[in-house]
């Protein structure tokens, strides 16, 4: 499963985001280190279900809204110096190891400092936190490379030494594949003898690896109290920025859970369908205003942007029966897989099961009812029958 990590300084709203997005009970408080262990949960990206192109809904979506699971990790707050063990330091950086992308939750209100302590709203520059979080991640990676450099030097004495291989060994643990290392090394200039590498060379390598293997989107949280100028400054960083209110989304999900409103995460409106007090209604109206202004609460949009834009994935639906779009038991569109754009039917087969991949014979586009070539690039919403010697 794809894994997204919520990183950021303390009190930015990570746990609120996490709770809203997973609706699991974790600590949410105005206290710097509420999250002592990383919380892992399941959240969902939202997409259009292919059953909308048929007469009947499939039963695995909500009125044509399909939710596809991703792992979400709530990482405890990072403070400047975390890579050297400050705050809750390194152990938490290590929890980012499996992340395919990082959602940096930023307090766009400027109402907390770099340590997460409350200050007057508007007095802390959120761009500072964007920079230090990125820097901490990169220095943490550089630390891993530094600590293992001796072994690279040792290997370099062997006649069949290959820097790509040595670095792959060193960095597979943080989610960098051989291909990533090869691409990154091609972009950089460095001494051919590992003994001549400087700390700066290793930091430059770490920064490039981070950009490639742990891309970041910014969530500009607390828009309900954020000065407009802060949102503009965040946008000027040139990074993807999603304005958000984690508190607002949590309130909506809880109200929906309690049957008070009808709301699907990511909707741009909701309807009050149950009994509400005057105060509750006022609160809900305020959230609706924010939704109108920012096109949603930003939570679903952040998850979707991370998976579909930043990681450039598509949703593909394997079926066994190409006319009915069912599995062997008659379940319509039972599974949805998130695959990198450019994936082929064979890649889908391997995602379903390695045996299905090994036994791959051919595939059928279940919309067009046509065989598709082995190297055909799949698209968002494709429904595909895999024919394999494995069952
Ligand atoms: N005004 C405002 N406060 C928020 C929002 N989201 C979270 N908070 C508050 O920010 C504080 C810290 O939230 P928490 O999720 O514990 O932050 P974490 O330390 O990053 O996990 C809590 O008091 C939340 O209620 C929001 O959208 N607007
Ligand atoms: Mg927290």
TrEMBL record:
Signal peptide positions (record): none
Positions of the OBG-type G domain: 2-296
Keywords attached to this entry: Nucleotide-binding
Superkingdom of this protein's organism: Archaea
InterPro entries named among the record's database cross-references: Beta-grasp_dom_sf (IPR012675), G_OBG (IPR031167), GTP-bd (IPR006073), P-loop_NTPase (IPR027417), TGS (IPR004095), TGS-like (IPR012676), YGR210-like_G4 (IPR013646)
CDD domains recorded: TGS_MJ1332_like (cd01669), Ygr210 (cd01899)
Gene3D superfamilies per the UniProt record, alphabetical: 1.10.8.470, 3.10.20.30, P-loop containing nucleotide triphosphate hydrolases (3.40.50.300)
Coiled coil: none
Keyword Nucleotide-binding: yes
Gene Ontology molecular-function annotations: nucleotide binding
Family of this protein: Belongs to the RelA/SpoT family.
NCBIfam families given in the database record: PRK09602.1
PANTHER family: OBG GTPASE FAMILY, OBG-TYPE G DOMAIN-CONTAINING PROTEIN
Protein name: Redox-regulated ATPase YchF
Origin species: Haloferax namakaokahaiae
Phylogenetic placement of the source organism: Archaea, Methanobacteriati, Methanobacteriota, Stenosarchaea group, Halobacteria
């Amino acid at each position: 499963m794809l894994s997204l990590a919520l990183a950021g300084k303390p009190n930015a709203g990570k746990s609120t985001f996490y709770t809203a997005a997973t609706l699991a009970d974790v600590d949410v408080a105005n206290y710097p280190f509420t999250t002592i262990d990383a919380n892992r949960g399941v959240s969902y990206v939202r997409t259009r279900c292919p059953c909308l192109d048929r007469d009947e809904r499939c039963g695995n979506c909500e009125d044509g809204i399909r939710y596809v699971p991703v792992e979400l990790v709530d990482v405890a707050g990072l403070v400047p110096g975390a890579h050297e063990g400050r705050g809750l330091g390194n152990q938490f950086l290590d929890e980012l190891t499996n992340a395919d992308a990082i959602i940096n939750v930023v307090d766009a209100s400027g109402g907390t400092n770099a340590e997460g302590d409350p200050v007057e709203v508007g007095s802390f520059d959120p761009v500072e936190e964007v920079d230090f979080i990125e820097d901490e991640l990169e220095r943490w990676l550089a630390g891993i490379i530094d600590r293992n450099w001796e072994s690279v030097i040792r290997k370099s004495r062997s006649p069949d030494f290959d820097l790509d291989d040595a670095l792959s060994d060193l960095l597979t643990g943080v989610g960098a594949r051989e291909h990533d290392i090869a691409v990154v090394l091609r972009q950089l200039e460095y001494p051919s003898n590992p003994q001549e590498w400087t700390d700066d060379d290793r930091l430059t390598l770490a920064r490039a690896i981070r950009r490639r293997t742990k891309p970041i989107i910014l969530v500009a949280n607390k828009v309900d109290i954020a000065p407009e100028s802060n949102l503009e400054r965040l946008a000027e960083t040139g990074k993807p920025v999603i304005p958000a209110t984690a508190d607002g989304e949590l309130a909506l999900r809880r109200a929906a859970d309690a049957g008070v409103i009808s709301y699907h995460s990511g909707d741009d409106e909701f309807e009050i369908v149950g009994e509400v007090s005057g105060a509750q209604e006022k609160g809900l109206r305020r959230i609706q205003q924010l939704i109108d202004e920012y096109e949603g609460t930003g939570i679903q949009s952040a998850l979707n942007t991370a998976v579909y834009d930043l990681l450039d994935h598509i949703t593909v639906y394997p079926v066994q029966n190409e006319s009915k779009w069912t599995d062997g038991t008659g379940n319509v569109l039972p599974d949805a897989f998130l695959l990198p754009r450019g994936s082929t039917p064979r890649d889908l087969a391997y995602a379903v099961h390695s045996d299905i991949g090994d036994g791959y014979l051919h595939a059928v586009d279940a919309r067009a009812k046509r065989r598709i070539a082995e190297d055909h690039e799949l698209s968002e919403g494709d429904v595909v029958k895999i024919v394999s010697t494995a069952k």
